[in-house]
Known about the structure:
The complex is a heterodimer of chains A (114) and B (111). By secondary structure, chain A is an all-beta fold.
Amino acid sequence: xxxxxxxxxxxxxxxxxxxxxxxxxxxxxxxxxxxxxxxxxxxxxxxxxxxxxxxxxxxxxxxxxxxxxxxxxxxxxxxxxxxxxxxxxxxxxxxxxxxxxxxxxxxxxxxxxx
Amino acid sequence: xxxxxxxxxxxxxxxxxxxxxxxxxxxxxxxxxxxxxxxxxxxxxxxxxxxxxxxxxxxxxxxxxxxxxxxxxxxxxxxxxxxxxxxxxxxxxxxxxxxxxxxxxxxxxxx
Lengths: 114, 111
């Protein structure tokens, strides 16, 4: 079954404690992306990746890091989380043809930073 | 810059029609439409590439006017299952692959 998986689904942590949210897709997609979703703001792109070792900033990259060492994985790293990073996070993947095509979203990770 | 969606919310009775608009201040390469139900991930509806094409998906269709940098999503004869929040996503030029999503339009269909 074609899918994007994220772990963990829920996470409560404290300010400053480094964390990683994993994302994996089994569709051999070139494009992968991280979004955060906050009430009234829709989906905002954090980082995206065109392929292995190719990443670029989205709209709100501050406070986040990513890496793309393998095509299927695109982890999101918060090295020193702060309360304003409390949000719902989605990972997505798609093929590329002149730009991203149909994006498949993971189930989401709800992060709370206290 | 996020695209601007309107209206922010709409309430319909089953069988009624709705239009959701999406506009950008920048030249658009593609427009993507997604629907998200409460507590779930967004689900892809359709993508429109520059060229003014119109696409359809069941009773949901969309148009793209690249001169006006606008897209519209048309929902005809709405069903209860159409309820959810609709997002447009835009890519501003070919091979600039960052996506910007609008704030969403909450659609409620009542019996």
